[in-house]
Amino acid sequence: MFNRLRKKKMSNEDTPVNNKPSSVRMNMFFFAAFVIFSILIFRLAFVQFVEGPELAYMETSRNTKDIPLAPVRGPIYDATGKVALAYSEPVQSLYVLLYEDYRNDDRKQEAQELADELAAVFKQFNPGDKEQPDAEEIMKRLDLDYQKTFGYVPRLVKSDLTTKEIAYFMEKKAEFPGIMVLEENVRRYDPDGVAVQVIGYTREFKRVPTTLKQYKTILESNSTQRDPGLVYNQEEKVGFDGLELQYQKELRGRSGYQSIDIDARNLPDGTMNLTPPEKGYSLITTINKEIQMVAQQAITDELRKLPNAITGYAVAMEIDTGNVVAMASMPDYNPNDKWDYDKIKYVFRNGTAESFPPNESGKKAESVVLLGSVIKPLSVLIGLKEGLFSTGQTYYDQGYATLGKDGRKVRNSHSAFNGSITARRAIEKSSNAFMIDMVGKGLYNKYGATKGVKVWDEHMKEFGLGVSTGVDLPKEYLGTLEYNSDNDESGLTRLAFASFGQQAKYTTLQLAQYTTMLANKGKRMEPHLVKEIRDAEGNVVKKIKPKVLNEVDFADAYWNEVHKGMVTKVSSFDGFPYDYARKTGTSEQGTGPNKKENGVFIAFAPRDNPKLAIAVVVPEGGFGSVSASPIARKIFDAYDEVYGLDGTPKGKKDQGKDTE
C-alpha cells in the first residue's frame, strides 16, 4: 500500500506539465507591446525632429483676426429734429469668404465657375439691368491675388440684394462655398434734395485716403489700431463733403467685427464670431426744410428769367444765434442717383462758401464775385471811424470822381448826379463818387498808400471779409483781396476802387456774416449749421451755443447813420410788412463784350430788433435789385411763416396771392 502510494506520488511529481500555449501568449503580448512602444517612440521622434518645426510655425502663425464691419452711420435732421435729410437704410449684401488659396490655375478655375454662377443668378433675378455685375466684374471683386486686402477678409460681391436674391442664396447656401448674406447700411438722402451741398455725401473708404488727409492718417494707423471699433473697413462709407465730412467722427459710430482664426496662409480656419456695430450720433441742423426749399426754388425761378445767369447763391442767418436757417447753392444734384463725377463736378460744391467755375468753358463768372455797392455801408463806417468825415458833413456829388494825374473819371451808376449829400444819403443813392473822394482818397491822404491799404484790410477782416467765418464746414474760401496784390495799380487807385466794392471777392456766407454785424452793431457771430448732437437713444450729448468771434467798437451815431442810409427802393419788397434795412449791389468784371454784371443783395429785418440777415449773389444776374432781391424777399416771407420776424409764426399764406 505504502509502496503503491509512494510510486503514485513519484509518478505524479516526475510527470512534466504542458505550458506551451501560455508561453506563446505571453511572448506575443510582450512583442506587441514592444512594437507599439517602438511606433510611439518613432512617431514622437518624427514629430519632434521632422514635423516639429512646421507644426511650431503653424502654431505661432495661427492667430485670431478681427474683420471690421461698417458701423451704422447716424442720421442728419433738419432744424425740427423730425425731417431726416440723411439717414442709413439697412440692406442685405452678398460676401464671399475665401477658405482656399485660389491663385493657382486649378483653384482659379473653381473661382471662375463660382463667378459665372453668381453672375447668372444676378441676371436671372434682374433681367435687363445693365448695372448687375458680370462674371468678369465678380472676379475683380473676389480679389484672388490679394491686391486689395488680405485673404481672410470677406469679399463684397454685391450690395442691396433683392428679396428674391436673398431667399435664393439662403436656400442654396450649400451650393456656393464661402458665401455669406450680411446686413449692411446704405446712405440715403431726402428725395426732395434739401441743401445737398451742405449735407454733403459719402464714398467708400478705399476711395478717399489719398484725397483727404484725415483718412490717409486713419488708413496708416488701421493696422496698429488696438480698438477694433475704430478700425475702418475698406468698403464702409465715409463722409466726403459737407456735414458728412465735417462730423465724420460723430456720425460714424463704432465698427462691429467678425473674429476668425487665421492659418499660416492668411486664410480663414474656423467659424466666425460676430460683434455687431454701434450706431453713430445724430445731428440736428439749423437748416429748416421749409425755408430751405423756398430759397432753392426762388433761385431756380429767377435763373429761368435771367438771360445770362446760370448759378445763384443765398444764405439766411439768424442775427442773435448765428443759426444758418437756409444755405442754397443752385443748381444742385440728386445725391441718391448713381452719378459719376463728370456729371456733377460743377454743381457738387457749395458755392455759398467755396469758389469754383460753373462750367468748363471758363467764360462764366465764378461763385464769388466783386461785392459792388453792398460794401458801401462798411465804407461809410470806416470813414466815420477814421475821422475822415462826420455824420452831418456834406459832399457835392457831380456824378463822378477823378483819379490820377490824367483826371480819369469814375462815374456813378448811370452817371447819376446827386448834388449835396451826407454819408447817409450816399448809401441810399449808392454814390461811387462819395466813396472814392471821402473814403478811398481819405485813407490815402491820411495814411499813404501802404498803410492806407493795411488799415482798409484790417477793417475788412474785423467784419469777416477775407477771413474764415468759423462755419462748421470742411472747406471755406477766404476771399480774393485784389487791393493787396502787387500789380501796376497805385495804392490810391486800389483804395478808391475798393471803397465802392471793386477790389475784392467774397463768398455769400461772408456777406451774410457781414450783414449780421451791420444788424447787431458790431458783433461777429459764428455761423453754424449744427445746433445739437444726440446719441442713438436721442439724448443730447452736445449743444452748440451762440459764439461771438469778435466785436468792433463804433459809436451808435455811426451805426444809426448807416442804418438810415440802407433804404434803397426795391420793388420786389412792395407790401413787405416790416421795416427792413437793405443794400443792392452790381459789380462789374471784364470789359467790352466780355463785361459781366453780377447781382448782389444784402438785407436784415426788422430794422429795429432784427432777427434775420440774408445775402444773395447771382453771378451775371445784372442789377442786384432785379436778380437777387426777389430771392431774399421770398426767404424773408418763408422765415416769417415758420418762425416769425417779430417772434410770432404767421403760417402759410394764401398760395393764390402774389406777394411781389
Automatic annotation (TrEMBL):
<dbReference type="Pfam" id="PF00905">
    <property type="entry name" value="Transpeptidase"/>
</dbReference>
<dbReference type="InterPro" id="IPR050515">
    <property type="entry name" value="Beta-lactam/transpept"/>
</dbReference>
<dbReference type="GO" id="GO:0009252">
    <property type="term" value="P:peptidoglycan biosynthetic process"/>
</dbReference>
<dbReference type="Pfam" id="PF03717">
    <property type="entry name" value="PBP_dimer"/>
</dbReference>
<keyword id="KW-1003">Cell membrane</keyword>
<keyword id="KW-0573">Peptidoglycan synthesis</keyword>
<dbReference type="GO" id="GO:0008658">
    <property type="term" value="F:penicillin binding"/>
</dbReference>
<comment type="similarity">
    <text>Belongs to the transpeptidase family.</text>
</comment>
<feature type="transmembrane region" description="Helical">
    <location>
        <begin position="28"/>
        <end position="50"/>
    </location>
</feature>
<dbReference type="GO" id="GO:0071972">
    <property type="term" value="F:peptidoglycan L,D-transpeptidase activity"/>
</dbReference>
<keyword id="KW-0472">Membrane</keyword>
<keyword id="KW-0812">Transmembrane</keyword>
<dbReference type="InterPro" id="IPR001460">
    <property type="entry name" value="PCN-bd_Tpept"/>
</dbReference>
<dbReference type="InterPro" id="IPR005311">
    <property type="entry name" value="PBP_dimer"/>
</dbReference>
<feature type="domain" description="Penicillin-binding protein dimerisation">
    <location>
        <begin position="70"/>
        <end position="266"/>
    </location>
</feature>
<keyword id="KW-0961">Cell wall biogenesis/degradation</keyword>
<dbReference type="InterPro" id="IPR012338">
    <property type="entry name" value="Beta-lactam/transpept-like"/>
</dbReference>
<dbReference type="GO" id="GO:0071555">
    <property type="term" value="P:cell wall organization"/>
</dbReference>
<dbReference type="GO" id="GO:0008360">
    <property type="term" value="P:regulation of cell shape"/>
</dbReference>
<dbReference type="GO" id="GO:0005886">
    <property type="term" value="C:plasma membrane"/>
</dbReference>
<keyword id="KW-1133">Transmembrane helix</keyword>
<keyword id="KW-0133">Cell shape</keyword>
<feature type="domain" description="Penicillin-binding protein transpeptidase">
    <location>
        <begin position="312"/>
        <end position="636"/>
    </location>
</feature>
<protein>
    <submittedName>
        <fullName>Penicillin-binding protein 2</fullName>
    </submittedName>
</protein>
<dbReference type="InterPro" id="IPR036138">
    <property type="entry name" value="PBP_dimer_sf"/>
</dbReference>
